[in-house]
Amino acid sequence: VDAVVWHGPLPSTYVFIYCKQMTDQSRVCLSVAPRPVNFSRTFYGIMFDAGSTGTRIHIYKFIQKDPVELPVLDSEMYNAVKPGLSAYADMPEVGGETIRQLLKVAKKTIPKEQWIQTPVVLKATAGLRLLPQEKAKALLNEVKEIFDDSPFFVPENSVTIMNGTNEGVLAWVTVNFLTGHLYTKTRKTVGILDLGGGSTQITFLPRLKKTVLTAPADYIAKINMFNSTFKLYTHSYLGNGLIAARLATLGALGADEDWSFGGLTYKVSGIPDGFAGYKLCYQEIMQVVKGIVHQPFEVKGSSIFYAFSYYYDRAVDTPNYCSFLFLKQVCNKMTKYRPISPFLCMDMTYITCLLKEGFGFKDSTVLKLTKKVNNVETSWALGAIFDHFHNLNIH
Length: 395
Ligand SMILES: Nc1ccn([C@@H]2O[C@H](COP(=O)(O)OP(=O)(O)O)[C@@H](O)[C@H]2O)c(=O)n1
What we know:
Strand content: 25-35%
CATH class of the largest domain: Alpha Beta
Distance between the termini: 29 Å
Pfam family, one: GDA1_CD39
GO molecular function, one term: nucleoside diphosphate phosphatase activity
Order of helices and strands: EEEEEEHEHHEHEEHEEHEEHEHHHHEEEH
CATH topology of the largest domain: Nucleotidyltransferase, domain 5
Pathway: Protein modification; protein glycosylation
Enzyme class: hydrolase
Helix content: 25-40%
Number of strands: 18
Oligomer: single chain
Radius of gyration: 25 Å
EC number: 3.6.1.6
Number of domains: 3
Bound molecules: cytidine-5'-diphosphate
CATH superfamily of the largest domain: Exopolyphosphatase. Domain 2
CATH architecture of the largest domain: 2-Layer Sandwich
């Protein structure tokens, strides 16, 4: 509905709801905008996720059937390359090539006449946050140049490092949108757990005031969406992603062997004939979690949590992963399982430790392990494209 001022005859294409004659002979009218028959608009948005372990492109197609209604997400085209941009810290041009390669997918997916109005945006996460500033900047500049050379629309600030709060909040938006929780007025939503290589995020809508009151001030974020404000509990732990946690754990043991992550090579080692087993591994890993991860007041409750990224990937790699007993077997029979998956015991122990000792989930908690919902990736990227089109005002 628009408010318009008319100085002449009223056009017949408008449907007027209310008009008021003003003293200067003009009329102020409330009208419904003209609705052309067969109105349907298709548009696209490109979101790059520059993660610590890989770079991904999400190409979203939206269809707006009616000018007064919100567009709907029609489909997503997804592609990924490895390693992530941070692995090219000393050769940004080579890193840029991976972006060029992914842009080719966008050109194939989006009709040519739409290119000029399709926004292209890249947001980097833990990998670039952990790099020295000048190296991260050189990589971002390289990407910006490639975007400028592309036929797509490059909005202002289209190539940035995203902060941890936005990463957590936007993943919450994605999952709640895809599971249909944002349309209803019930304010019933689901929480999210995202385990990346460099950082890990937890986000949920607290039901109890105490959860908000007992949380550190910067763990509470507000977001405006569909005319309501959500006050979320959210935090991103930098250095507590799965691969960064491996590094922290191994660092405690001393170092021999070369191991690369995020553009750096580390010396790592184990004690060949030392003690192994689940209990000792758990104790060692506890040092990476205890005193670092804040336990939200409410998490022990009955809320539903969707867990994705490495939570999903590692679970899939673990035979009989539903069984906690099996984890003990993997760790206690290292000679059997190490050759198949050398980090399996360490990773699953870290995940268990993070969920239980860190966030305070109960042994009996059932998480919804997800990769896609309705054929769309569970990732912050969809939330980020919504934020681009609608400005969700996260603060
Ligand atoms: N769209 C995506 C993005 C990441 N991932 C997974 O997320 C994990 C690592 O996330 P990441 O490289 O973005 O790490 P951070 O930069 O967030 O710490 C890997 O297991 C990826 O395969 C995914 O499954 N789908």
